[in-house]
Amino acid sequence: MGIKIGGQIEKVNGKELSYDEFVERYMEKNQPVVLTGLMDDWRACRDWVTDNGQPNLQFFATHFGKSKVQVADCGTREFTDQKRLEMTVAEFVEQWLGDPMQEHGNASSHSAMSKMSLYLKDWHFVKEYPEYEAYTTPVFFCDDWLNIYLDNYHMHNDPNIYSENNEISCSDYRFVYMGAKGTWTPFHADVFRSYSWSANVCGKKRWLFLSPSQSHLVFDRNMKSCVYNIFDEVNETKISGFVETIWLECTQEQNEIIFVPSGWYHQVLNLEDTISINHNWFNAYNLRWVWDLLLRDYNEAKEYIEDIKDVCDDFEGLCQRNLAANTGMNFNDFLIFLARLSLANYIQLHYLSRKNGNHTWNLSPIAQHLTFNLASIQKIALNIKSVEDLTGSHGFHLDFRETLKDPNFFKLCTILGKTYGMVHMQQNWNSATKNAWIDDMRDLDVIGTCSSQVCNPEDLIKFIELAVAEFMGVRIAEDVSRLK
């Protein structure tokens, strides 16, 4: 069965694009784009690539060979993904180069694998080698709440669910991928329905994209089973809508970065031996996608165990635990995440008002950005409240006064401040000054008015209303309207 190509992904010189233009044309409209000209000074482009443009595999084996990584066997399906193997980078390089490990007295089942079928994926390179500085995240992708948060907190802290090796509840969503020509990634939409960006350090990839408006066409009638490989013969009886799909195509060259918006299903093939750097991320512009996925997965988790509801002492709690295990967080995790980000954004506004001390500071790009962030969070909290009214609250609690004493929260605020200063090309953070101001904020009226306790979505909504009213007046209402 062939697929219908309806167009190509736009390519734009990233050096000629402003941050505001990127937001308006791609992030806000949730449209994919390929950006060029943004990788010229990356260390990875020097160290990881040979003079003839091939992956410098010996460099990886020499410098990072002991790292344990997940490697997908592209020839073997396991449930909805490819079978995963664990090996060291050195072992993976041996397989790729066709250097049998038996010669080194280290025979392994991996040695029987063809290099064509093995694809190193989801290597947390930045977490493992933070001093190496392989690349600099382009400014378009720096407003990354997910990774900024995970650098300081776990998304879910249940010891029965979280582990360092858990693929979903992981330490960050910054990855390195390495695969030979012919390796591929099955059809999927990204984790949390996040944005993602993928930079080709070397090699070439073919991407096939399906718009969110057509995603229902690749599922069965119950929206449970999805296409695995769009180039396989699809069962038209089971997935009848597939013949109606229209795809966007892109060939991503070396030193090009592709922006993948939320909810766009895609399949990727390595046309050459390839190394790429990939981030998943979300912020105020796609927060609703995260919530929509959480709600959908919650309803599925609830439906799956509905038959034991009458005999379960804590049915809702079980639903939330299953949601966290399957999706990577539950309602309470998401609310705590939103509450911490709300407080961090409020601190930025407080800093701006203290720093500028005039009547026009709230019209600055940073202030408008922060206000939009809070409006987005408030809108999601309102949506959560409508569900929480039915399900109740299960363990959500955050004390803002205690949070302000948390050194991890201070680090989160620091990075957030530096990020918006860079995005809007303004100096927006002085650590020594802000450290003192955070101490002062423990006695601020807005926190006292909220009793410093956030225990449900209503508390968070009230905090945002009071916080923004203190600085921005009616602007929050304008931003909420913009989000509708």
Short description:
This protein has 484 residues and is an alpha+beta fold. It is 39% helix and 19% strand.
Question: How would you characterize this protein structure?
Answer:
The protein has 484 residues and is an alpha+beta fold. It has two domains: 4-281, Jelly Rolls, CATH 2.60.120.650; 287-483, no CATH class. The chain contains 16 helices and 16 strands. The strands form three sheets. Strands 2-3-12-9-14-7-6-4-5 form a nine-stranded mixed sheet. Strands 1-11-10-13-8 form a five-stranded mixed sheet, with no helix packed on it. The relative contact order is 0.11. The model is unreliable at 100-112 (pLDDT under 50).
Biggest beta sheet summary: 9 strands, mixed
Low-confidence stretches: 100-112
So, the CATH homologous superfamily of the largest domain? Cupin
| Total number of domains | 2
Quick one: how many beta strands?
16
Structural class: alpha+beta
CATH topology of the largest domain: Jelly Rolls
N-to-C CA distance: 39 Å
Q: Percent of residues in beta strands?
A: 15-25%
Summarize the amount of helix as a percent range.
Answer: 25-40%
CATH A-level architecture of the largest domain? Sandwich
InterPro entries: Cupin_8, JmjC_dom, JMJD6_ArgDemeth/LysHydrox
Keywords: Iron, Metal-binding, Oxidoreductase
Pfam families: Cupin_8 (PF13621)
Protein name: JmjC domain-containing protein
